[in-house]
């Protein structure tokens, strides 16, 4: 199995991404989960990460709390999408498993320092603050990272928090800029992909039909989460943004993209946080990321439902 660290701000879709990873031990070994401030403040994201581990029957997973605010400026949250707790929808018990004492950034640095080159894959599902801080504090960890597979950005689908920016990148553009300039191989799941991974009514029914606590919780989460997208975009169900990352690590053949140059706009008056993807190769700048554009949604939901059924 591929060794991964999930960096996350749960978030209903983060929760589903974590459940998919924990349900797939033959493909993925989760070395730890690092929480970051994003959808809701850090005190809630680290708690939600532990709630999700317990839902998966994995209280042994180590969860670390990381950065509570972006590198520059104030934290922007998304309660309007995810609800007050960040995990609104299902009624899940408070976690009893402990939060680790170490800071998430220390855990990232120590784990990568100790690992052989190219062994550990990072999976950021929220703002890139923890990852950028680790790269900034310990530059030598960059070659240790096999790949960073992240959810963030948009190209043809433009933005969801401003007209041009996707939430995860917008919350901490300075951090994103460090990550995109790091030289680490990057695979990006932008809105262009995730807005095609929609939990339609039959897909939601399939989660519920699993007849398990995890299936019920995922159905209740996506029921809640879809209210925002249906109202805002008229989309047919909630987009499962973050699970695209863990699904890609299990079934890369479900995704299509291009290896292109992606720069992060940190200054634009109207475009701060935009992922400027050179889709047509007109800039002459060197490619630094595989920017995905398409997903086999039927295959993705078949995989997800099947794996969730194991929990
Ligand atoms: C991203 O922002 C968050 O609200 C979601 O969890 C996802 O990571 C989508 O723009
Ligand atoms: Ca997220």
UniProtKB/TrEMBL annotation:
The keyword tRNA processing is assigned to this record: no
Taxonomic superkingdom: Bacteria
GO function terms (MF aspect): purine nucleosidase activity; uridine nucleosidase activity
Keyword field contains Zinc: no
GO annotation (BP), single: purine nucleoside catabolic process
Pfam entry (one): IU_nuc_hydro
UniProt domain Inosine/uridine-preferring nucleoside hydrolase: residue ranges: 4-301
Single GO cellular component term: cytosol
Keyword annotations: Glycosidase, Hydrolase
Range of residues in the leader sequence: none
SUPFAM superfamilies given in the database record: Nucleoside hydrolase
UniProt protein name: Purine nucleosidase
Organism: Rhodovulum kholense
């Amino acid at each position: 199995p591929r060794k991964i660290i999930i960096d996350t701000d749960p978030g209903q879709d983060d929760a589903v991404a974590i459940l998919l990873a924990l349900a797939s031990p033959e493909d993925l070994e989760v070395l730890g989960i690092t929480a970051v401030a994003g959808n809701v403040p850090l005190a809630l994201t680290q708690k939600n990460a532990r709630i999700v581990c317990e839902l998966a029957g994995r209280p042994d997973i180590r969860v670390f709390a990381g950065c509570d605010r972006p590198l520059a400026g104030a934290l922007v949250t998304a309660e309007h999408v995810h609800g007050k707790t960040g995990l609104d929808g299902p009624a899940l018990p408070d976690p009893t498993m402990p939060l680790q004492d170490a800071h998430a950034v220390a855990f990232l640095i120590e784990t990568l320092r100790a690992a052989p080159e190219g062994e550990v894959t990072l999976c950021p599902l929220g703002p890139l603050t923890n990852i950028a801080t680790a790269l900034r504090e310990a530059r030598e960890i960059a070659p240790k990272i096999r790949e960073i597979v992240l959810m963030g950005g948009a190209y043809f689908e433009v933005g969801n928090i401003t007209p041009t920016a996707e939430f995860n990148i917008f919350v901490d553009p300075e951090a994103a800029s460090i990550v995109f300039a790091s030289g680490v191989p990057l695979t990006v799941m932008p809105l262009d992909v995730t807005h095609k991974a929609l939990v339609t009514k039959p897909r939601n029914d399939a989660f519920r039909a699993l007849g398990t606590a995890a299936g019920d919780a995922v159905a209740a989460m996506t029921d809640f989460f879809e209210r925002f997208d249906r109202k805002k975009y008229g989309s047919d169900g909630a987009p499962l943004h973050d699970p695209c990352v863990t699904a890609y690590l299990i079934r890369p053949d479900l995704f299509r993209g291009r290896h292109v140059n992606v720069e992060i706009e940190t200054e634009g008056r109207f475009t701060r946080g935009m992922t400027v993807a050179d889709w047509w190769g007109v800039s002459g700048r060197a490619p630094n990321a595989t920017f995905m554009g398409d997903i086999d949604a039927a295959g993705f939901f078949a995989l997800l439902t099947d794996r969730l059924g194991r929990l």
